[in-house]
Every structure is written in C-alpha cells, then in structure tokens.
Amino acid sequence: MEQHTQAIKMPKKLEQYIGAIRGDMAPGERIPVDTEMDAAQRDLQIPNIWRYAEKSKGVDWNLFGYATAVRYKDGTLKLINGQHRIELVKYFAPEITEVPAHIIDTNDSRYAAQLFAKMNGTASRSLSSEQLFWAEVIGEEADALFYKSVLERSNLKCGKVNEGNGRKKVKFANFVKAVKMGVDETIRAAELIDYAYPKYGMNDTLLSGMARLFSHSSYEELMDPETKIYKEFEDWFVNILPMVMTIQDLSFREYRNTHQWHDGVAYGLYQKFAHYQRMKGRHCMPVDAIKLNYEKGIKVDEYA
Q1: pLDDT (tens digit, 9 = 90+) per residue, 129-168?
Q2: Structure-derived torsion over alpha carbons of residues 132, 47, 183, 157, reported in degrees to the nearest 10
Q3: Per CATH, which fold does 12-121 belong to?
Q4: How far is CA 17 from CA 56, 63, 74, 100, in A?
Q5: Per-residue pLDDT, 204
Q6: Backbone angles phi, psi at 141, to 5 degrees
Q7: Is 79 within 8 Å of 119 (Cβ atoms)?
Q8: Domain boundaries, given as residue ranges, for the chain
Q9: What is the pLDDT of residue 4?
Q10: What's the sign of the alpha-carbon dihedral 179, 185, 188, 192?
Q11: Is there a contact between 285 and 266 (Cβ–Cβ < 8 Å)?
Q12: Per-position DSSP letters for 93-155, written without gaps between them
C-alpha cells in the first residue's frame, strides 16, 4: 500500500501522533484521499493541519465527518470541501486510502463552484473567537476554563460564557490580551470601569490599556493597596474622570497610531491622572516610562 509522500515536513513535536487514530469512519460512500481538488478550492494552509493534529492528537474520525465531492457523468470526482481534513489523514494515518464523503452527482462545473462558496460562506461559517471559546469551555479545555475563571472574578461575560444579568460583555481576543498582561490587573481594571461607568458596556480597549498601565514596572504603586496613590487613582478614576470624559473618550483614539493600541490608552490615561495629581500638589510617578512605551510602538513611514 503506497503511503502519502509528505511535501512539507511536519514539526517534530507532532510526530508522536502519526498512527494515532480514534473512533470509526462515518458510514456511506468513500472517495480516494488523492481525489483532485475542484478549481474553486482555496489554497492549502499547512499550519491549519498542524493545529488540527495538535488539538485532536492525531486523526479522530468522530471529528472528521464527511468530505464533499462532485461526481461528473464521466465518473470524474472533484473535491469541494474537506481538503484540510484529508491532508490531516494523509500525514497522520498514511495507511488510509479512502475517506467518508458526501458525493453529489452533477455535470455543471458552475454548480460545483457555487456549492463550495456556499459551504464556506453561507451554509456554514468559521467559528468566531467567542463561539470557539464557548465550545472549549464545554469541552473543559484547560486554557478555556482558566479564562472563564478570570471572567467570573472580573464579573464579565464573553459570548455565552459567564452569561448573566449585570455583567459587561467583552470580546475574547481583547480579554485574553489583557489577562496576559496580568490577571489581578485585569480584574481591577474591570472593577474600576464598572464603578465609574455602571450604565455603559465594557470598553475593551480601555480594559487592556488599564491592564497595561497597572502591569508596567514603573507604576507598581497603582496596584498596591497599601500606598496612598492607589487610593487616589481609584478616587480620580471613579469619581472625577466620569465628570469630564465619557467611556468612549477613554479609547484615546488620538494615540491609536502605536503598534499596540492599549499602549496608547495606557499613556493617555496616566498622562491625565499625572496632570490631576500635579494640580493637587500630590505625588505621582513620572509619565516618561509609559510615554516611552507608547512612542516605541508608533508606526513611522519608512519613506518620510
């Protein structure tokens, strides 16, 4: 039995999954693993195959389902859906020569292209980050359960995860960004935003910007409840700032020109707090460190 010749060498860490197979193939018709792609097919994305293999730890027939192919009157088969799953089989179960498929008989190549477009853009879609997060929580994936626990401690919700009255909604990608800068910092930022702007939804950019500010080594006092400035920042943010700035204003779009927008938000926010502290004759850490952090990320026109 001829094995699949690997055009691209797989990462060494995935070699352990070669031959790892779970479940049984779905019943019904089969197509060869080397079935020719229809012209409408997208380009193969090898990194996707490595991700699938790592998540499923090899080939899981319970996840494979069916590929989709069209069969023309002369018997020619063309694959219109499932190429990445089939490539997964080729790499990790090279002894397999056929896979389950839904075969559609037609003699209209235009219809085949329409089927491909509809399968990948209308009848089904890629999962959003929030949908995938929910599925991984249900599947009890360790990372997902960790982020769910931080959501709960932040009194936030994300998609269907941690749904409940009074919880502000956050986008998954931005929440992860904030948490990676600091769990306690993210929780405190969410709490202060809720106190200051209770009638408004979460400002995702502000959340990650505050997490950035709180996690910066030059501003550790803002996270130390034993310091005076910790309490002064909280009072300013909750009681003073909402009188002069809306929650939308705190996105600091004027500082969006940096590589990471949250760095601009962190700079804009602390700049205003430092000005307030100076007006009151109070102690505050210099703004230079967070300003430098913001300026490092500014995109400079290479032709300027």
Answers
A1: 887 888 788 878 889 899 999 999 999 999 999 988 789 9
A2: -10
A3: 3.90.1530
A4: 9, 16, 38, 21
A5: 96
A6: -70, 135
A7: no
A8: 12-121, 170-296
A9: 45
A10: negative
A11: no
A12: -TT--EEEEEEEE-S-HHHHHHHHHHHHHTS--PPPHHHHHHHHHHTT-HHHHHHHHHHHHHT
Determine the pLDDT at residue 52: 87
> Do the beta carbons of residue 168 and residue 201 sit within 8 Å?
yes
Q: Token pair for residue 259? A: 């590589």
φ, ψ for residue 66, nearest 5 deg? -130, 140
Which amino acid is it at 157? K
Q: Give the pair of three-digit tokens for residue 12.
A: 């060494």
Q: What is the pTM of this model?
A: 0.65
CA 37 vs CA 6, 42, 69, 98, 182: distances in Å:
17, 9, 9, 15, 46
Instruction: Go through 69-88 and write b for each residue having 16 or more CB atoms within 10 A of its CB, e for each that does not.
Output: bbbeeeeeebbbbbbbbbbb
Phi-psi map region of 5: left, alpha, beta (phi>0 left; psi -120 to 50 alpha): beta
- Segment 125-138, tens digit of pLDDT: 455 788 788 878 88
Read off the tokens for 296. 């490092």
